């Protein structure tokens, strides 16, 4: 069975512009990050063993999916990657591309896309 999940939580320091100053920010506390990893990324029976499709393809790429409307954050590149495609192993192995569409405006979030092979 294949499955996919979308979440709004930061997993790693690469996923937020200023990690050191955001350690107490909702969604990025050490406790929330540990819970995210344990619940979604660890193998069963403790977790769901899902794969972050973007990070699997691009382990070192900085890409943000959320920019606050405050302080002109998008124009300044001050963002967070808080939207993910998490896929089961069977589906993650078929992912050809996982991408962001940063040029699409109209929201504080950037649309995500994933291309899956048959």
UniProtKB/TrEMBL annotation:
EC assignment: the record states 3.1.11.2, 3.1.21.-
Q: How is the cofactor bound?
A: Probably binds two magnesium or manganese ions per subunit.
Write down the InterPro entries for this protein, in alphabetical order. AP_endonuc_1, AP_endonuclease_F1_CS, Endo/exonu/phosph_ase_sf, Endo/exonuclease/phosphatase
Tell me the enzyme class: hydrolase
Q: Which cofactor does it need?
A: Mg(2+); Mn(2+)
Mind listing the UniProt keywords for this protein, alphabetically?
DNA damage, DNA repair, Hydrolase, Magnesium, Metal-binding
Give the superkingdom in one word. Answer: Eukaryota
The residues covered by the Endonuclease/exonuclease/phosphatase domain are: 35-109
Q: Which Gene3D superfamilies match?
A: Endonuclease/exonuclease/phosphatase
Tell me which positions the record assigns to the signal sequence. Answer: none
Q: Which family does it belong to?
A: Belongs to the DNA repair enzymes AP/ExoA family.
Q: What is this protein called?
A: DNA repair nuclease/redox regulator APEX1
What organism is listed for this UniProt entry?
A: Dunaliella salina
């Amino acid at each position: 069975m294949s499955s996919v999940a979308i979440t709004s939580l930061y997993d790693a320091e690469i996923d937020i512009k200023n990690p050191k100053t955001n350690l107490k920010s909702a969604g990025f506390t050490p406790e929330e990050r540990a819970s995210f990893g344990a619940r979604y990324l660890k193998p069963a029976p403790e977790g769901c063993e899902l794969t972050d499709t973007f990070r699997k393809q691009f382990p070192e790429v900085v890409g943000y999916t959320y920019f606050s409307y405050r302080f002109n954050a998008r124009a300044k590149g001050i963002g967070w990657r808080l939207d993910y495609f998490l896929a089961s192993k069977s589906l993650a192995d078929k992912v050809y591309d996982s991408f962001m569409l940063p040029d699409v405006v109209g929201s504080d979030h950037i649309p995500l896309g994933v291309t899956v092979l048959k």
